[in-house]
Specification:
By secondary structure, the protein is of the alpha/beta class. Helices cover 39% and strands 21% of the residues.
């Protein structure tokens, strides 16, 4: 098996999972933004592999960096593709289904497997644009709570908005790692 771990991380939580996965599988982890622009290019890393493990954070239910990776011509020739994403929501079948529908339902490959891991939040690590978007989202949630009860995700976002939280858990990668090892 020849495999690669590629990830896109804005605040470090996806990076943490990517490096754990790479370590457990004795692979190198490539940051889509930095490593694959300065050290190697994406096509070079994807060339000749039979297993791709890609990770990205969720932003407005979209997986950061996924389109760039899945649009590459060489992904079509990779028989095994694993996608993991990180976010603040609690893990559930509903969350997993929503992520799949919004990101992977149009993927022609039937062998793309999706994993969702709870990440964290650190407002200080966000870019200016992301901070602005988060403030707008917080304002929108604040306005909603006057009209109706908030969902658990909305309550959770308000609770952590001005705090740094880290829900990462190395145990969560066990299923993905075991599935890749069984190939």
């Amino acid at each position: 098996m020849k495999a690669a771990v590629v990830y896109s991380s804005k605040t470090g939580f996806t990076r943490k999972y990517a490096h754990w996965i790479a370590e457990d599988l004795s692979l190198e982890a490539y940051d889509l933004k930095y490593d694959l622009n300065e050290v190697k290019n994406l096509k070079e890393v994807l060339s000749g592999i039979d297993t791709l493990i890609f990770g990205g954070g969720l932003y407005a239910i979209g997986i950061n960096g996924l389109k760039k990776v899945m649009d590459e011509d060489q992904v079509d020739g990779i028989p095994n593709v694993f996608v993991f994403c990180t976010g603040l929501s609690l893990r559930s079948e509903e969350v997993q289904r929503e992520i799949f529908e919004n990101n992977l339902k149009d993927v022609e490959k039937k062998n793309v497997k999706l994993y969702y891991y709870r990440g964290g939040f650190d407002f200080r690590k966000l870019s200016f644009i992301d901070r602005l978007l988060m403030r707008l989202m917080k304002l929108k949630i604040d306005m909603k709570k006057k009209k109706r009860p908030l969902t658990s995700d909305e309550k959770g976002m308000l609770a952590v908005f001005h705090r740094q939280v880290d829900f990462t858990d190395r145990e969560l990668i066990r299923d993905l790692v075991q599935e890749v090892q069984s190939l």
